[in-house]
Each structure stands twice: as C-alpha cells, then as structure tokens.
Design goal:
Elements: H1 4-11, H2 15-30, H3 35-55, H4 66-82, H5 87-105, H6 114-134, H7 136-139, H8 164-185, H9 188-198, H10 200-205, H11 210-236, H12 246-259, H13 264-284, H14 289-303, H15 305-308
Helix pairs in contact: 2-8, 3-8, 3-11, 3-12, 3-13, 4-5, 4-6, 4-11, 5-11, 8-11, 9-11, 12-13, 13-14
Length: 326
C-alpha cells in the first residue's frame, strides 16, 4: 500500500484538468465550423499517446507505428462497408485486430538495439503498406477504399456534415482511453515499465519479467493506435494508403518531440500544436510549411521545451527535461 500511494497521488486529477476537458468537449459548440479539426486533433492525439506508451514510458523506439494506425483504419472501413456500418462495433473489431497483430509483432522488438528496432518497425509498416497497395481489389490500392458509409453512433447520433458528432465521438474515445492509459502508467505495472526504460538489465536482475512486460505494453499501444486509425476512417468515411505511410509515423514522432515524452499530455499538446501549425502554415505557404515546423523544432532544442511550455506543469508530474528523450 505504501508503494502504491505515490502512484495513486500522481493519477489523481487536478481541477485544471476538468476545465480543459470540459473546454475540449465545448469546442464543437463554440466553433462549429472547426468541428472536423477538433476531431482530427483528438484522433492524432490518441495516436501520439499510444506511441508515448512504448517510447516515453518503456524506451522502445519505433518508426513504424503507423502500421497499426493504418491497420485499424482499413479494418474499420472494410467492416463498415462489407459487414456492419455500426461505428461502435467496428471500433471494437479494429482495436482487437490491431491488438492481435501487435502481439505478434511484439516478438520483433524483444531483442536487439534501438537501431535494430527502428529498422524492424519501419520494415513492418512498409510491408503492410505494400500489401495494401497490392491487394487493390480489397483496399482500393492507390485510389483508396471509397464508399464507406457509417451508421449513427449508438444508433442515435448521425454523422453530420459539420463534424460535430465526429468531434464528440473522437473526444469521448480519446478521454476513455486516456483514463485507461493514465491508470496503466501510474500503476505498479507502469512503474516496472519505467524501470525497464531506465535500465533493462537492472530490471531483469531484480526479477521484473521484462519480455512479458514489453509484449503486453506493445500490444496495448498497437491496439490504441488501431483505435485511432479506426476513428479516422469512420469520421472521414475513407481509408487510403496514406494511413500506412512513413509520413504518418514521422508526424506522430514530431508531435512527441513538441509535447514531450514520458507524459501523456505531451501527446495531446504536441498534436494540438502540430495540427494548428500545419493548418495555419499550409494556408499561408502551402509548399514550405514543413520548413517553419522544422524551424520550431530547432528552437525547441536550442531554447528548451520547458521554457516554452511551462503551463504543462499544471497537469501533474512528468519526466524532467534533462531525462526526456527528444
């Protein structure tokens, strides 16, 4: 009990968090024309947090996390098109499929160095990308999977053109899975993950089952990434090869660089900053918006993330800037 008390204290919600989440759910009413943007930010924030589970809390470097995101997107789209248009059931199916594939793929990250894992995870994503491209009779190939019509959420809430339902649907799933991830990282299980991240050999020496811990958290992260991909396909009614592309994995890595790793709200902040910058800069300079994002990343390295985003300390304890990976 003494060991769990500090963990429970970290998991306790602060008043400002309730206000922030309430504001997030109110955004589709305050800015109805930006509801689709709110939905997209919620989806990529969920995707970023799933990567943070393995990168920030466990120390597993991955450049192919889009494999599970894309798998979830295609599973949800195919399920809606050929079996059942119910988005809730499709979301569960996509999550389960991504979890199974993640459990199998976890074998590839149990051994080797960070460089080895980078190559293996990237290779896994590229294999799925090529498979989706070749199976054009199923996935639509380069044209994408079109004609995906989603039913109402819970049989009551129809997806509207303005995206309000999509925004609230995505935010609800984000909040539920955020609570799950928060519970995981602030539990004794999460403490063992941090021990593995800091020193794997020492963790093995004190009796932590490293292999099983890595397999479980990789599976959970894959499942949540698949959920994020399924949300994207369901809210847009479309799935294309873009969901499996390397750019998708690179973008989510940039979000964690901006927001910080080893801290769930880092994925949320990184997603908000990245998507707002992308939307704003691409409207001003469509061809060179990535240059400005690159410049901001350089400033983050030179100035320091903590100096730029001091308010994030309101949301609770996170890893110090000195120990956080870029």
């Amino acid at each position: 009990m003494d060991f769990q008390s500090p963990l429970l204290a970290k998991a306790r919600w602060r008043p400002v968090e309730f206000a922030v989440w309430a504001l997030a759910f109110a955004l589709p009413l305050i800015f109805p024309s930006r509801s689709l943007m709110v939905s997209e930010v919620a989806i990529v924030a969920l995707f970023a947090m799933s990567l943070d589970l393995i990168l920030g809390y466990t120390g597993i470097v991955s450049l192919g996390h889009a494999a599970f995101f894309g798998l979830g997107a295609y599973t949800a789209a195919l399920f809606a098109k050929h079996i059942m248009p119910d988005p809730t059931v499709g979301l569960v199916v996509a999550t389960l499929v991504s979890a199974v594939v993640g459990a199998v793929a976890s074998i590839t990250i149990l051994r080797g160095t960070d460089l080895t894992r980078l190559m293996v995870t990237l290779g896994t994503a590229l294999l799925l990308l090529e498979l989706a491209n070749k199976l054009d009779w199923l996935t639509g190939g380069t044209d994408g999977l079109q004609g995906v019509n989603m039913g109402p959420v819970l049989g009551k809430f129809e997806f509207d053109l303005f995206g309000k339902t999509a925004a609230w649907y995505s935010l609800t799933v984000l909040l539920l899975l955020f609570l799950l991830m928060r519970r995981i990282v602030h539990s004794p299980f999460g403490a063992t993950l941090k021990a593995i991240r800091d020193n794997r050999l020492r963790a093995m020496a004190i009796g932590i089952p490293v292999i099983s811990r890595l397999s479980v958290i990789y599976t959970v992260a894959a499942a949540i990434a698949g959920t994020a991909g399924a949300l994207l396909a369901q809210t847009t009614g479309f799935a294309s090869l873009d969901v499996l592309a390397f750019d998708r994995s690179a973008d989510v890595m940039l979000m964690l660089v901006i927001g910080g790793v080893g801290w769930l709200y880092g994925g949320v902040i990184g997603a908000i900053v990245f998507k707002v910058l992308q939307d704003t800069l691409s409207a001003v300079t469509p061809q060179y918006w990535m240059f400005w994002i690159g410049l901001i990343l350089v400033l983050l390295v030179l100035v320091g993330r903590d100096r730029l985003f001091k308010p994030w300390t309101w949301f609770g304890t996170r890893r110090s800037a000195g120990s956080a990976k870029p």
